[in-house]
Amino acid sequence: MTPEEALDAILMHAYGAASGGAYLEVERAGETLREALRRLAEAEREVEALRAREASLSRRVREAEEARYRALRLLLDLERELKR
Predict the structure, then answer these.
(1) Are the CB atoms for 15 and 23 separated by under 8 Å?
(2) How far apart are CA 24 and CA 27, in angstroms?
(3) What is the pLDDT of residues 7-63, one digit of tens each?
(4) Are 26 and 14 in contact (CB under 8 A)?
(5) Residue 84: is it exposed, middle or buried by C-beta count within 10 angstroms (0-12/13-18/19+)?
(6) What pLDDT is stored for residue 18 in this prediction?
(7) Alpha-carbon torsion (18, 20, 26, 29), positive or negative
(8) Separation of alpha carbons 81 and 2, rounded Å
(9) CA angle, corner 10, sides to 30 and 28, nearest 5?
């Protein structure tokens, strides 16, 4: 059951138990909770996007460090050759 489905089930029970002005309060609470669920879903998507970006950046940093290591190694090799 999704959070939206759970909210729908809870609201159906609340509507059934509500009378008069309480029905309007249940409606407002439902709208507030639906908005909270939308914001939560959006935040979860943003977190996933940030995690993907972090993984991409980590790969790029690792590649840059490997390239730096290779460049330093070539410089050391060149230095040894020049000293001969």
Answers:
(1) yes
(2) 5
(3) 999 999 998 888 888 989 999 999 999 999 999 999 999 999 999 999 999 999 999
(4) yes
(5) exposed
(6) 86
(7) negative
(8) 67
(9) 15
Q: What's residue 20's pLDDT?
A: 80
Q: SS3 breakdown of the chain: % helix, strand, coil, rounded to 5? A: 95, 0, 5
The token pair that represents 22 in the structure block? 């309480």
- pLDDT category, 70, cuts 50, 70, 90? very high
- What Å distances lie between residue 53 and 20, 58, 63, CA to CA? 51, 8, 15
Structure tokens at 37: 């669920």
Tell whether the model's pLDDT for residue 84 goes beyond 90.
no
* pLDDT score recorded for residue 74: 97
Helical packing angle, 3-17 and 21-83, nearest 10°: 170
